[in-house]
Amino acid sequence: MSSASAPTLSLPGDPPGGRRAAWIWGIGVAVYFVAIIFRTSLGVAGLDAADRFDVNASALSTFSILQLLVYAGMQIPVGLMVDRLGTKRVLTIGAVLFTVGGQLGFALSPSYGMALAARALLGCGDAMTFISVLRLGSRWFPARRGPLIGQVAALFGMAGNLVSTLFIARALHSYGWTTTFVGSSLAGVVVLVPLLLFLKDHPEGHEPPPAEHAGATYVRRQIAAAWREPGTRLGMWVHFTTQFPAMVFLLLWGMPFLVEAQGLSRGTAGTLLTLVVLSNMMVGLVYGQIIARHHEARTPIALGTVAATALLWASAILYPAEHTPMWLLVVLCVVLGACGPASMVGFDFARPANPPERQGTASGIVNMGGFIASMTTLLAVGVLLDATGDNYRVAFASVFVLEALGVAQILRLRRRAALREREHHVVSRVEAVHVPA
C-alpha cells in the first residue's frame, strides 16, 4: 500500500463524526476564533499602542514577544493538561484568562507595565485553545479527517484575524482605545456560555483510557515519548519554518512597514493585511484537501511554501526603488497567506506518529515551533529598526536566517520520519486484522 493511503485508514474504534460532532467541535472552534481576534488585535493597533504608552519600536515589539513567549512556553504544559484534564476544562480556563485578564485588562491598562501583564495573560489563555481544538477534532472525527479538520480549524482562526483587520482597526479610529478593546472583550463572554453548557470531550462509547496518576514521572515520560518520534520533531520544524513570516507581518510589523516604509495610508495597509487573511483561508482549504488525499505531498507543500515566501519577501524588501510597487506587495501578501496552512502540515507529521493519549503533548511540541520563530523575529526586527534608524530592509532580512535553519532541519529529519511512519502503519494494520468483528 502506498504512503498516500496509509494515514487515511480508519482504525477500529474511530469516532463516527456527523452533525453532533460538527456542533461540539464548532463550539471549540468558536473559542479559538475569539482567541485569534484578541491575539491579532495588537497587529492593527501597534501605532496606537506606541502613542498611548509612549514607547519606541523595541518596547512595542515587547508586547508581542511577551505574548508569544508565554504562548510558546505554555505549549507543552497545555498539551499535558489536555491529555490529563480533558478539553472542556482547559478551554474554559483559557477563555477566562484571555477575556478577563487579557483583552479587558489591556483595554483598561493605564501604564506600559500593566499592559504587558495583560498581554502575558492573553498569551496564556490563547495557548490553551488550539491544542484543545485539535484534540477535540481527533476525539469526535475519524482519523482520515484529521488533515482537513485541522485546516478548517485554522481557517476559522484566520477569520478571527479578518475581524481584527476589518473591524477593530476601524473601531479604533472611530471610538478610541478603551471602547474598542472593552467592546471586543464581550466576545469572550459570548463563547464561554455554550462552552460551559454543551461542550463534551468525546462521544459516548469513545472514552479514552484512564489517565495515569499525574506526577513528575508521568510528565517526563509523556514528553520524552513524544519527542523521540521523528514525526514530532519534523512537525515542530515544519511549523517553525513556515508560520513565522506571516505571523510577524500580521501580528505587529506589517502595518508599520506598509505605512512608514512604503508610504501607504492606514486604509490601504489594512486592505493588504486583509488580503493575507483571505489568502490564508482559501489556501487552507486547498492544502487540507490535497494532504487528506495525498500524504506524500506534505513535505513538498511545506518546502514549496518556504521557497515562495523567501522569494517574494526578498523581492519586496530589496526592490531597487524607494517604494515597492503595489503589485509586488499584493503578490507578497497572497503568498504570505500560504504560511499558516503550510504550518498546519506540521501537525500532520506528528499526528500519525503518536497514540491518542499523547496527541496533546505532541501537538504542544509542534505548536512551539512557529511561535518561537515568530518571537525571535519580532525581537530581531524591533532591535534592528532601532539600531538602523528604521531601515526595514535590514530588519526584515532577519527572516532568512530562521528560514535557512528550519529548512536544514526539515531535510535532515524527513526520511527518518517517513520510515517511522511506515512502521506505525504496519503495526496498525496488523492490530486491525486481529480485532474481533
Q: How many domain modules? A: 1
Number of helices: 16
In percent terms, what proportion of residues is strand? under 5%
Main CATH class:
Mainly Alpha
Q: Give me the CATH superfamily.
A: MFS general substrate transporter like domains
Q: Quaternary state, please?
A: single chain
Q: Can you name the CATH architecture? A: Up-down Bundle
Uncertain runs with pLDDT below 50, 5 residues or more? 1-12, 430-437
The CATH topology label is: Growth Hormone, Chain: A
Protein structure class: mainly alpha
Rounded to an integer in angstroms, the radius of gyration calculated over CA atoms is: 21 Å
Order of helices and strands: HHHHHHHHHHHHHHHH
The coarse silhouette is globular
Number of E-type strands = 0
Q: Mean pLDDT score, rounded?
A: 87
Helix content: over 70%
N- and C-termini, Cα separation: 23 Å
User: What kind of sheet is the major sheet?
Assistant: none
Short description:
With 437 residues, the protein is mostly helical. Helix content is 80%, strand content 0%.
Keywords:
single chain; 437 residues; mainly alpha; Growth Hormone, Chain: A; 80% helix
Write a structural description:
Helices cover 80% and strands 0% of the residues. The protein has 437 residues and is mainly α. It has a single domain, classed as MFS general substrate transporter like domains (Growth Hormone, Chain: A, Up-down Bundle), CATH 1.20.1250.20. Helix 6 runs antiparallel to helix 7. The chain is globular and about 60 Å long. Mean pLDDT is 87; it is low at 1-12 and 430-437.
